[in-house]
Amino acid sequence: MNLSTNKLFFILLVFNIISVAAQETFSDNFSSVSYSNNNGSQNWSTDWLEYNDNNNPANGYISINDNELRFRYIWSENIRRSADLSPYYTASLSFDWRTNSLESGETLAIQVSSDGTNFTTLDTFAGTQSGTFNQDISAYISSNTTIRFRKGGNDWSGNDDRTYIDNINISTTSVPQTDTDGDGIIDVVDLDDDNDGITDEEEYCSSINASFLTSSDVGERSIVINHSDTGYLRLDFSSMDNSFQLDINGTTVHPSVLEFENGALDAGDEYFVFQSDGSFINQPWVANSNGIPRLRLIVNEFGEINLYGSRNTTSTSLELMEAQGGTPFNTIAWVPGNNNTFTLTNQQGPGPEGFTGELFASSICDTDSDGISNHLDLDSDNDGLYDIMESGVLDEIGVADANNDGIIDGAISSSGTNGLFNSIEDNDTVYAIFSYTILDSDSDGNYDAYTLDADGDGCRDVVESGFTDDNDDGYLGPDPFIVDANGLVTTGSDGYTTPSDNDSNATYDFREFGSVPTITSQPINVTTCPGCTTTLSASVTADQLQWQYYNGSSWENLIDSGLYSGTATNTLTITNPTPNQNNFQFRLITSNDSFVCGTTISDTASLMIRVNTVVSNRRITYRVNKN
């Protein structure tokens, strides 16, 4: 949370809405002569299993001696153990090792597999030395993640060729199971974590939309895009001919290049097909006729990756895709608060090559710095207006907030499997599209819910809504303020009610650009006589007009009476003034109903009382009534 030097925030946090990733371990420190030790917080799914040895931990070429797993004189002997890592989104493998007398070409290899059959060598150990191994194995997360030790090169030639392994540990981080809005969909897969009618993706900030259009048939080409503090990425291809790779901060999204055209597999490529039936996408190089992307790759806040495709050029939906060989995607490590670099490469191939699309990168943010991220905050800018009100979703048919809690009524039971209210989406999928447009009243690129002046008229939303801003900072209530677990200000004297529409035109004032009136012709001084009638006037168009006079110490509003009329118009009529009103000063106050942040005040005009006829006799002057 960012705290300014002049503002102190008090935040009430409720434990069950904080998304905390749980860490679990699968360990074996070989403290007993057994292949079934479980020394971590979770149990392995299998014991250690020997192959081509006697499967006895007490003796053989592979055994447990002096609290270590020992290998000696290894030819075909190997050992493996499996763990169910499917509930987790990161995993790392570590252990201590030491070798003795392994000659040139003799090594012990550590391998990993996601299916228990196809193994990848992570490292090998040789010579007479020791060390600690530690490596990310998130790419191999599955229900059958398996590690294996075996020789990595030549047969070991002597009985003194040995390697010792100890303190094997797989450390994992699980996807939080938090369900903030209680709709039965955990936040990590819920498109709208707080049920305010705005998807989490739209509630992220510091976003970029980088479109790319790369010419075809020019060989391999790459595009580099940078973004700070990324926490979410969506990559849409409108066309793909016919393979690509995306590198994020030095890690590719998949161990292989992603190939989509059947029959075009090159070295280092892997086919990607629809998960449901294993079929290929049809003509990925032709754009979809209804605007849906041909491919969509999403990297979520936990670095997990999913790929979707539109099966045909006329498809109206996206479907989940996977590597044909089952190789999982890598897990991306975002760099909070720092630069993230995306390198998108279109590989050279035997036929036409090209791709077009858009990369959307964003960060999980907290617009009002109150400690509640926007996607969990029901008032993301602390102006006393619910996000559900500022978004415009309440204008949609079937959407209501009758109990005034900032959450769509019925969202818990009517948000389907993706957590987004059914009435405002085109389908109940992870790639659902809004059926309404989120309001950006002044079209400045910032949604009303995340700016303190939605209509850009210089009058802040909290004031235009009729609420109290005690210190003129744009936030509801005083400074410091307190927010609850939903990000709502609890120290204000009002707020979170229907906002003002002072001109009764069915548009809330905070959405309607307003301004103070302009006076094009100012009132001027007038001279009249006692008992006569005169006027003061100004040229102005305004919703409210009020004439005032100066009583010697302050300005006082005039009301229609025997002496004054037209006090609420642009022309003030003064009837039968008396001599004691000589040099009275008057002015006109003007304002517009939809703009409560200012008035326009006219110039001051004076009333002078004079008789019309003067008779002079030598040095004596007489003032007489003209009649």
Automatic annotation (TrEMBL):
Q: Which UniProt keywords apply?
A: Signal
Please name the source species.
Answer: Flagellimonas okinawensis
Give the signal peptide, or none.
Answer: 1-22
Task: Identify the InterPro entries for this entry.
Answer: EF_Hand_1_Ca_BS, TSP_type-3_rpt
Name the record gives this protein: Ig-like domain-containing protein
